[in-house]
């Protein structure tokens, strides 16, 4: 069987890390695309030379030509600009919207059968715009944010309870902004709900509330520490988990930015929800029963995403 082909649009911090993990896992041959001449080619050469040391068989090439993504099975988009300290993700909307237009047109022309995972911020608006510009089916275009936000939530909970990260399961829903919704109700340690662990005296409500707040600001915390650029190791690992779910038809239930049409009372936009990811792309959105607080918080988050879509339509009238 021929190897799968993975195209990475954007060869910056996340793009390079995605290429490295994908090669280590031998997910397929990799094409790194970027607008900057030399960067994707240089990174591809450097990464190829990891092969003999790490023992992977993957052809890694760099390009500035969209024609080279033809036939890609999976495309992961990180093209664009990251925020700097003091900025919100939403401040990137104008500049990254233009990038999504170029990328969407490139995908439409050269790889319309791919499963596309968007990572560029502000995520929920950019994945929506990328889908519009590419014209691909909604179930084949998805955004990565919830896997990362849930990983942060899980990390902080594992530290709080002093347990293995393997036993912690969490969902963060809603938009990938400060209004995201870490769902405590469905967060568990080996099946035991976090609220029960609090009742058992293993933590306090105040500490869990602080972890929820830290999770919401998790991206900003790293931006503040790095001072230039934003998180890239965990975002890349999260993108790869989604790519693997599709390539290996794993039917994983992951929190992803999926196109909702009626689920959770929301229609016609992308927002973070639990969804089954398999060979069909986003195969099903899973509607979990939320408590009143989570429901209210999700609505606030959805409203924030709606505002961003209005802004996109104001900037690019082809989206209106
Ligand atoms: N969704 C998430 O959870 C999440 C997590 C982390 C970062 N991000 C976002 O991902 C994006 C990328 O982050 P990064 O750290 O890799 O940034 P980076 O600056 O290291 O890399 C971005 C790359 O995109 C390239 N680029 C710019 N315009 C392009 C175009 N038109 N076509 C192709 N490539 C283009 C740049 O040359 C650069 O190499 C940012 O918008 C960031 O905010 C999202
Ligand atoms: O916070 C950012 O700007 C990058 C990304 O969205 C993250 O959550 O790490």
From TrEMBL:
- Protein origin, superkingdom: Bacteria
Q: Which residues form the active site?
A: 176 (proton acceptor)
InterPro entries per UniProt? L-lactate/malate_DH, Lactate/malate_DH_C, Lactate/malate_DH_N, Lactate_DH/Glyco_Ohase_4_C, Malate_DH_type3, NAD(P)-bd_dom_sf
| EC number annotated for this UniProt entry | 1.1.1.37
Keyword Oxidoreductase in the entry? The reply is yes
Question: Which is one GO molecular function term here?
Answer: L-lactate dehydrogenase (NAD+) activity
Positions of the Lactate/malate dehydrogenase N-terminal domain: 5-143
Q: Which Pfam families match?
A: Ldh_1_C (PF02866), Ldh_1_N (PF00056)
Give the catalysed reaction(s), semicolon-separated. Answer: (S)-malate + NAD(+) = oxaloacetate + NADH + H(+)
Single Gene Ontology BP annotation: tricarboxylic acid cycle
Indicate the secretion signal residues: none
Where's the Lactate/malate dehydrogenase C-terminal domain? 148-307
Q: Which keywords fit this entry according to its UniProt record?
A: NAD, Oxidoreductase, Tricarboxylic acid cycle
**Binding of NAD(+), residues:** 10-15, 34, 96, 119-121
Binding-site list for substrate:
83, 89, 121, 152
Give the family, as the similarity comment puts it: Belongs to the LDH/MDH superfamily. MDH type 3 family.
Q: Which NCBIfam families match?
A: MalateDH_bact, PRK06223.1
Query: According to its UniProt entry, what is the function of this protein?
Result: Catalyzes the reversible oxidation of malate to oxaloacetate.
Q: What is this protein called?
A: Malate dehydrogenase
């Amino acid at each position: 069987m021929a190897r799968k082909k993975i195209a990475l649009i954007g060869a910056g911090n996340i793009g390079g890390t995605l290429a490295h993990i994908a090669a280590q896992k031998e997910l397929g041959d990799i094409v790194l695309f970027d607008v900057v001449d030399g960067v994707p080619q240089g990174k591809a050469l450097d990464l190829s030379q990891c092969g003999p040391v790490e023992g992977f068989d993957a052809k890694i090439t760099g390009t500035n030509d969209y024609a080279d993504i033809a036939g890609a099975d999976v495309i992961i988009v990180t093209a664009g600009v990251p925020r700097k300290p003091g900025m919100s993700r939403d401040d990137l909307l104008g500049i990254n919207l233009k990038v999504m237009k170029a990328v969407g047109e490139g995908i439409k022309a050269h790889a319309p059968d791919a499963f596309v995972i968007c990572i560029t911020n502000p995520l929920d608006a950019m994945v929506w715009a990328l889908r519009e510009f590419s014209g691909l089916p909604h179930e084949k275009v998805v955004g990565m944010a919830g896997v990362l936000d849930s990983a942060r939530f899980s990390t902080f909970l594992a530290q709080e309870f002093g347990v293995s990260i393997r036993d912690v399961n969490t969902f963060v829903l809603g938009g990938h902004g400060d209004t995201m919704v870490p769902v405590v109700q469905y967060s568990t340690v080996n099946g035991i709900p976090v609220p029960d662990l609090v009742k058992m005296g293993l933590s306090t409500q105040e500490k869990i509330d602080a972890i929820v707040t830290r999770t919401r600001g998790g991206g900003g915390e790293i931006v503040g520490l790095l001072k230039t650029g934003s998180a890239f190791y965990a975002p890349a690992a999260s993108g790869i988990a989604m790519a693997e779910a599709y390539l290996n038809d794993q039917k994983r239930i992951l929190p992803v930015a999926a196109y909702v049409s009626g689920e959770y009372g929301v229609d016609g936009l992308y927002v973070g929800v639990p969804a089954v990811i398999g060979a069909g792309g986003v195969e099903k959105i899973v509607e979990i029963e939320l408590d009143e607080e989570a429901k209210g918080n999700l609505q606030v988050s959805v409203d924030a995403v709606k505002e961003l879509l209005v802004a996109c339509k104001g900037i690019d009238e082809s989206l209106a």
